[in-house]
What we know:
α4 links the parallel β3 and β4. Strands 2-1-3-4-5 form a five-stranded parallel beta sheet, with helices on both faces. The chain has helices at residues 19-22, 27-40, 53-62, 82-91, 129-143; strands at residues 2-7, 44-49, 69-73, 95-99, 121-124. The longest helix has 15 residues, at 129-143. The protein is 37% helix and 18% strand. By secondary structure, the protein is an alpha/beta fold. It contains five helices and five strands; from the N terminus they run βααβαβαββα. The structure holds 1,3,4-trihydroxy-5-OXO-cyclohexanecarboxylic acid. Residues 10, 73, 75-76, 78, 99-101, 103, 110 line the site of 1,3,4-trihydroxy-5-OXO-cyclohexanecarboxylic acid.
Amino acid sequence: MKILVINGPNLNMLGIREPQIYGSNTYNDLCNLITDYAKQKCVEVKIFQSNHEGTLVDEIQSAYQTFDGIVINPAAYTHTSVALLDALKSVGIPTVEVHISAVEQREDFRQISFVRAACIKTITGLGFRGYLRAIDALIENGKQL
Ligand code: DQA
């Protein structure tokens, strides 16, 4: 199984940005955690981060017929991007939405998620562990096919 993990804007600043919300572990720590877990689960994983909406759309499109699952934390684009929703709908790859923080307990503008309509599951508030649970969900989903 091949899984693409996509991270949106400012997630490369983990460890520096708002540690009281996102914790003090770095983006590199997150990548290592995901890579180690994927290895353990015999899953091939590619991790991608961009601050640019169009680049994220390009990456989703390039996953077509190449990846079996997507884990996406669109970060701020969660709450604004129809383009990411349309890209996910276009490729039709099972996708899990992840947020490190409990977005449902935060500001009103974080209560909307455009991508959610294209996702089989949403995981929030589990910190970095949310990415691992998303990989589990994609593996489970793959077994049911
Ligand atoms: C986030 C939540 C978003 O609202 C925010 O814009 C982010 C990170 C999270 O992982 O908790 O950048 O997606």
